Amino acid sequence: MNKSLPSRRLSVAPMLDWTDRHYRYMARQISRHTWLYTEMINAGAIIYGDPERFLLKNDCENPVALQLGGSEPQALAAAAQKAAAWHYDEINLNCGCPSPRVQKGAFGACLMNETALVADCLNAMQDAAPECVVTVKHRIGVDKQTDYQVVADFVGTLREKTACRTFIVHARNAWLNGLSPKENREIPPLKYDYVYRLKQEFADLEIIINGGIKTNEEIALHLNHVDGVMIGRECYHNPMIMRDWDNLFYSDTRPAIEYEELVLRLQDYAAVQIAAGRGTILRHMVRHYLGLMHGLKGARQWRRMLSDAQLLKPNRPELIAQAWAQVVQADGRFAS
């Protein structure tokens, strides 16, 4: 197992349809140290589908983790073995997703009711990919399981029966009936104190908190109690929140990337990806860039140009620079 991995002090959550390799390339340009996670990928898709489609990543992405969905130890082991060959640093088991599709497959948050099975899954994954760190992402409970001891028993059992030492805890219950995935991110109350108690009770474990965290000030407060903070949708809708993370949370004093330099890198990246084929088109990449100019004058023009079907149709990477020119024109801070 690789023991020289950088700290998971900050990480970007796995988000379905969002944290693909194109998003992760952009995020890595903004922060050198933040851990990146893939969207959840079903183990069966990796085993029986095209591995390149699901596992292809950019060399610059590391540290990067693959999140797997599944509940069959043998299948998860086979998927983990394939992932290790693509040089992922970590393989994470999803025990927190409450969507109906995941429930139908009896994995995700459902697994919190099957702790022994989770242990078997984690052990099988670790045996198959000894060079990777195997971790778990979970909720604090399922449905009406509102007592702290539920999550404490889950973590304690896995600590005893597996080599897993990193637990990413979404500080909400998962309601498997009656709420949509979106509502499951908003309605069940956040109980950050439960995650803090886990760190107090299991001081030897790496405990990472997730759920409803949106500002650098909130991140700093949580880091007084836990080892790391995982941010979800704020990193997608406002990616430049990550711009100061290296300095604030990793003591990296190098200058943060400038907007213009980032735009040039993204344009060059888009050109390389389109030239490489694989069916990649400009729209696949720029859909992740829409929030980059959040808070700037000209952000509306940027979003409009990069989501305009007619402008995207010619598949020209130069559209990114043209959209940036609109921001420069609107926001005097960037005029040379």
Can you give a write-up of this model?
The protein has helices at residues 21-30, 43-48, 51-55, 73-85, 100-104, 115-128, 148-161, 181-184, 192-201, 216-222, 233-237, 245-250, 259-276, 282-286, 299-306, 309-312, 318-330, and strands at residues 10-12, 35-37, 41-42, 64-69, 90-95, 133-139, 166-170, 206-210, 228-231. It has 336 residues and is of the alpha/beta class. It folds into two domains: 10-250, TIM Barrel; 259-334, Four Helix Bundle (Hemerythrin (Met), subunit A) (Up-down Bundle). Strand 4, helix 4 and strand 5 (90-95) form a beta-alpha-beta unit. Helix 4 runs parallel beside helix 6 (115-128) and helix 15 (299-306) packs antiparallel against helix 17. The termini are far apart. The mean pLDDT is 92.
Give a quick account of the main beta sheet: strands, pairing sense, barrel closure: 8 strands, parallel, barrel
Distance between the termini: 49 Å
Beta-strand content estimate: 5-15%
Structurally, the number of domains stands at: 2
Give the low-confidence spans: none
Q: What is the CATH C-level name of the largest domain? A: Alpha Beta
Share in helix: 40-55%
Count of DSSP H/I helices: 17
Q: Give the overall shape, derived from the CA principal axes.
A: globular
Strand line-up of the largest beta sheet? 1-2-4-5-6-7-8-9
Instruction: Output the structural class.
Output: alpha/beta
